Amino acid sequence: MPLGLPDGISVCLFDLDGVLTDTAAVHRAAWKATFDPVLADEGQGEFTADDYAEYVDGKPRLDGVRDFLASRDIHLPEGEADDADDKRTVNGIGNRKNDDVLGRIKRDGVKVFEGSRRYLEAARDAGLRRIVVSSSANTADVLKVTGLAELVEGRVDGVTIREEGIKGKPAPDSFLAGAKLVDAEPAAAVVFEDATSGVEAGRRGEFGYVVGVNRIDDRHADELRKHGASVVVDDLDDLL
């Protein structure tokens, strides 16, 4: 199995946050900073790591806002896309979270998992196509500042999802769009994901292989398997 993949795989579809870059913790912290004041106003407990994993990780930003608020029985108006980040609407909360993430990235930078960089280089050298599929609207900026843009051939990201009306993870549509960029059938593509929603998207899309990337703990590894991972690794260079 070259690169740890079954025969017939010619396309790699990589999630970004938590798979290629160590930005999942950044997003988790930004979500917590965003939701905790809302929860305090409602007299509810704080946003937790389990909340992040179950309701927002890997999903388009506004879907994450809706799903988490619904889990706490909090109902807010949708508002408008350009709502100020202090407005108590779904869009306002989403914009607040995005502003927080951008501030953290600007202040602290973005770390690349070196095992993932090595895997991208090996995939390139092996002639595999390489596409990033992420729910983040900041994907292009992150790829540029990390130098990963030179190692991938295209992307489907939060901007694409919004502009083209693509269903977000756990629906398989964003990964299917990624495969379509290089005219590949799902069976010829492997999905690399650290979020259960993304792994489920890979399973539902009937992709040839789904690699779950566990950066958390044994319980998360089990959840990745339950949601459809073909294999679970701690780092991509475990496959080399």
From TrEMBL:
MF annotations from Gene Ontology:
beta-phosphoglucomutase activity; hydrolase activity; metal ion binding
**EC?**
5.4.2.6
Class of this enzyme: isomerase
Determine the domain of life of the protein's source: Bacteria
- Cofactor dependency: Mg(2+)
Catalysis: reaction(s): beta-D-glucose 1-phosphate = beta-D-glucose 6-phosphate
Q: Which UniProt keywords apply?
A: Carbohydrate metabolism, Hydrolase, Isomerase, Magnesium, Metal-binding, Phosphoprotein
Entry similarity comment: Belongs to the HAD-like hydrolase superfamily. CbbY/CbbZ/Gph/YieH family.
- This protein's name: Beta-phosphoglucomutase
Q: Which organism is it from?
A: Jatrophihabitans endophyticus
Instruction: Recall the taxonomic lineage recorded for the source organism.
Output: Bacteria, Bacillati, Actinomycetota, Actinomycetes, Jatrophihabitantales
